[in-house]
Amino acid sequence: MKLKMTLKVFMLFSVCGGQMGMINAVNAQSVVQTTDRVTGKITDETGGGLPGVSVTVKGKGTAVSSDGSGNYSINISGKEILVFSFTGYTTKEVAVNGTTRVNVQLQVDQKVLEEIVVVGYGVQKKVTVTGSVASIKGDVLRQSPAANLSNAIAGRVPGVIASNRSGEPGNDFSTLLIRGKGTLNDNSPLIVIDGVANRGAFERINPDDVESISVLKDASAAIYGAQAANGVILITTKRGKTGKPVITYTGSYGLTQPTQLPKLVDAGQYATYINEVNDRLGQPHQYSDADVQKYKDGSDPLNFPNTDWYDAVLKDLSPQYRHAISLSGGNEKTDHFISGEYLNQDGIFHKSATNYKQYNLRSNIGSQVTNDLKVSLNVSGRLEDRHYSNYSSGSIFAEVLSAYPTLPAYYPNGLPGPGLAGGRNPVLMASGATGYNKTKDYSLISDASFHLKLPYVTEGLYLSGLAAFDFRFRNGKKLYDNWDAYRYNKTSNEYVNLRDTEGPINLNEDFRNYQLQTYNLKLGYERRFAAHLITAFVAFEQSENYDEGISAYRTGYLSSKIDQIFIGGDKDKNNGSVASQSARRNFFGRFTYGYKDRYLAEVILRHDGSFNFPKGKQWGTFPGISLGWRISEEDFFKQQVSFVNQLKIKASWGKLGNDKIAPYQNLQQYYLDGGFYFGPDSEKQQGLSAGVAPNPGVTWEVANNMNIGIESAFFNGELSINADYFISKRNRILIARNASVPSSTGLSGKLPVENIGKVDNRGLELELMYRHSINKDFSYQVGGNYTYTRNKVVFMDEAANVPEWQKIQGHSMDSWLVYKSTGIYKTQAEIDNSVHLAGTKPGDIGYEDINGDKKITSDDRVRIFETPTPSSVFALTAGFQYKGFGLDILLQGQGKARQLILPQQGNAITPPVWLFEDRWSVNNPEGTYPASFDRNDPVNNRYSDFWLRNAAFLRLKNVEISYTFPKTFISRLSLQNLRVFVNGSNLLVMSKIKDYDPELNAVTGSYYPQTRIMSAGINISL
Questions:
Q1: What is the spatial distance between Cα 81 and Cα 500, in angstroms, rounded to a whole number?
Q2: Could you give the CA distance from residue 840 to residue 849 in angstroms, rounded to a whole number?
Q3: Strands 190-193 and 318-330, how do they pair?
Q4: CA angle, 467 then 469 then 471, to 5°
Q5: CB under 8 Å to 201, separation ≥6 — which residues?
Q6: What is the distance in angstroms between the CA of the first residue and the CA of the last residue of the chain?
Q7: Residue 1013 in contact with residue 256, Cβ under 8 Å?
Q8: Which of 87, 308, 711, 853 is disulfide-compatible with 648, CB 3.0–4.6 A?
Q9: How many other C-beta atoms can be found within 10 angstroms of the C-beta atom of residue 31?
């Protein structure tokens, strides 16, 4: 085995270095000790000779390739087994028992040749795709226990940057970027579900319903024209397959917990810290030495409590469970796939108000009405039921960081404590005792389609069409209630209820209705003429959507027992509504040509019209072209480099648009204002105020995308290496000139956005995978992918007096604007001999005078061109299968990212332990962090590079261990499949940020943290 692998690797490096003679030398050495010569001819299913077929002696390194006519000759020793392998054909083994001629006919491996990927408005064979299209099968996504499908994509697709900033049930999605950021505006990709764009987010689709996900990253996305500049994600759901009906059930139960949380100081440490703050301010101590001691020893929990607020608010483990069932099958006339799913996610709080339930139903049915006509109907419905506290998760965690550890979560008698102010005890806020926020989202998406072959006109001609009707409804209700929280009065020895200080009970309710209609009609042609393959189509599509909503508010409730709008008072009430609409009309087509599946070309043209733009600017044309050359199909290559099974070079260019802008910018807009009083009774009349000036020339952004890539496979497909280099030049980006126009003109906020911005983006992608089967019982695979992307702002509006070191133009748009620190002052002499902020003391952070004006001002801030959004992402995958046992591992990480962590910023009050233990003091002059300070500190609380942390990480993103029971066993149970599994997500993270998850989304840590999930489940088919 080791010798075989060494030979393979040596061959690979020989090709890369162009040293073909070495390969021949190796082949020559491998046949030195042969005794018999075997010859023969290898043919395909038609009897034609197959050149370039690999012929090996099983278990040995001996290898030759068939010539241009399919003939081969190989030396063997005695009774051996010859292995014949060729890309696209089934490998065949033949025992040689003394004969000197062995002729072999190989059969086409349909699974390999017919492997297809979904592209815009169609499918293509993977081997002939010339664009940069990445695809992932649903089976791989289901290895993750993550409830949100977007989290299962992380690390799986090269070119996709997935950042998860929260683990809150119902809001635990990942933000997806395709090849990084290319615009100063919306960078989100277009989502297409079963051929229909803009159906909403895909992350709530039942994972068991997903057949595949494709990502269009270059000119291949031009087929979506004005919406394609940020890339396109295509989701294809399952359809029934011919065969008897199969019922499949998948059930799992999991437990979640935060990935990482900072440890906050206890009451004794807090009292010490605050006393030190007062010392530095020249104020008396807030806590006496006796008080500090009592907080430390816990001798008087009533008067001197010691609360770990994270422990008080969060529980150790939270359940998550899921049930999914499907019925699939079909015959030559009808196919069907029907499924249902139930998902329940609990929050991480004690007595949690946070809960998310999801219900999915789907029915995909197709019918072959005649030999030439097939019709399909897809219908899916979903209910998303979200329950939260009336306080957001950010507010709850802000209170966790604000509440002193010297305040009680509960008193010894069980009564809840007062919180920091107004009864805002985070334990009560998280439990929903303060009120609720309930939202139900109903989604119904449906489409009917047909595909009609037209052989009576000409062979290969067809007509297809689709009509889709999607509806979404939202019902939201938020109640601000009164609740019981108590403050202990030491003088009277009474517990005072703060219920009367919490404000009036009030109720908000809203309803939202969204409708989308999409129609398309496509005339296509697909036919092979000997060595020529031609496919083409032209199509028309139109879409319209309408969105409207109404809201109502009342206060003055005497009780929250009947939480209905009509129960509220008449004095303080309000209502409102929203409405919007949009429409698009598109003409587009694609032409592909392949000669012997060797020389490949594709041309795309789309002409888009959008209502967002004024007359004369409504239409735009978006072309795309890509070329491919499968060098591995050349006869000279097959004969000389037999171990290279696939080598394709591809290149593309495309012009793509981005029309994600606010509508009606070409018109003068007016907004409702506070109104005025008019008439004899001085009644208030509604008033209007003019908005920004109109821009009659507004149009879409345009991206010119270029891509060059290589796809390769070696050693009978065991090793594959793919690489892409891309450049995207975005222009006509909509930005306003507010920066360069002085505020003294009075035009601030009145200028319209203009198509003046320019951004360049470039990068590379690498993907490698090695798969090998030791025998029929054991196989393994290992691989990885890497993406690097970097953008540069070519032009954006910046003020003329912006210092050079603060400009974004010419640099990446992603940046922190911070002061540059010089370290911590240890002595007064150091302060006196430097430029410093007023009030600076030993133990404070020093800042660099960048502009040399002998003052520290906002002009001394510098740009650090990294943000939490990474410039590079990578992943490593590994796994094996042995007699039904399976192990799959995904390691995912990022680089070139920075996060600012300033724990005393904003409302944060309680410092973390790491800040307390390594703070500067007279007794600890080498302390890493500043002397004790609070949120009001004007010196240390500034955004500076002192608080920037390297946010690179390597995460154990996913692990699954499974066992599939053998057929001999499950057949006795009348089952088709029985599989059990244990999996986990976000199990471990390695990062220089030790106390927070490196993907945190708040500089203080006041957010709902990312969660790890550990799950076990079963999959049964009958």
A1: 89
A2: 15
A3: unpaired
A4: 170
A5: 150, 173, 191
A6: 40
A7: yes
A8: 711
A9: 18
d(CA 438, CA 440): 7
CA distance 19 to 26: 12
Q: In the numeric block, which tokens belong to residue 152? A: 């299962």
Q: What pLDDT is stored for residue 452 in this prediction?
A: 96
Q: Map 138-188 to HEC letters.
A: HHHHCCCCCCCHHHHHCCCCCCEEEEECCCCCCCCCEEEEECCCCCCCCCC
Residue 826 tokens read as: 């240890």
Please name which of 251, 215, 247 lies closest in space to residue 327, comparing C-alpha atoms: 247
Token readout for 77 is 């020793």
Question: How many angstroms from the chain centroid is the CA of residue 363?
Answer: 27
Three-state secondary structure readout of 213-250: EEEECCHHHHHHHHHCCCCEEEEEECCCCCEEEEEEEE
Q: What CA–CA distance (Å, rounded) separates 202 from 289?
A: 58
Cα–Cα distance list, 500 to 395, 422, 425, 427, 829 (Å): 21, 9, 15, 19, 54
783: alpha, beta or left, given left = phi > 0 and alpha = psi -120 to 50? beta
Mean pLDDT along residues 299-315: 96
At residue 223, φ and ψ (nearest 5 deg) are -65, -15
pTM of the model: 0.87
The C-alpha angle 555, 557, 561, rounded to 5 degrees, equals 130
Q: For tokens 């226990």, what's the residue?
A: 145
CA distance 220 to 538: 16
Say how many C-beta atoms besides its own lie within 10 A of residue 483's C-beta: 20
User: Any bridge partners for residue 257, and if so which?
Assistant: 1012
CA-closest candidate to residue 513, choices 469, 544, 546, 478: 546
Type of residue found at 718: E
Q: Residue 891: its pLDDT value, please?
A: 97
Selection from 148, 152, 159, 122 nearest residue 137 by Cα: 152
**Count of all residues that appear for the chain in the document:** 1022
362/533 Cα distance (integer angstroms) = 36
**Cα separations in angstroms, 204 against 210, 448, 791, 800:** 11, 22, 31, 47
pLDDT digit string, tens, across residues 718-771: 999 999 999 999 999 999 887 777 766 667 667 888 999 999 999 999 999 999
Element (DSSP H or E) covering residue 817: strand 816-819
Beta-carbon contacts of residue 157 (< 8 Å; ≥ 6 apart): 134, 136, 213, 215, 785
Of 887, 873, 898, which Cα lies nearest the Cα of 961? 887
**E strand or H helix at 831:** helix 828-832
Integer Cα distance of 48 and 90 in angstroms: 16
Whether 930 and 940 have beta carbons less than 8 Å apart is answered as yes
DSSP-H helix ranges across 614-674: 635-640
> What separation in angstroms does the CA of 145 have from each of 138, 317, 319?
13, 15, 12
**CA distance linking residue 435 with residue 989, whole number of Å:** 36
Q: Name the packing angle between helices 20-29 and 2-16 (round to 10°).
A: 150
Contact predicate 700/732, CB 8 Å? yes
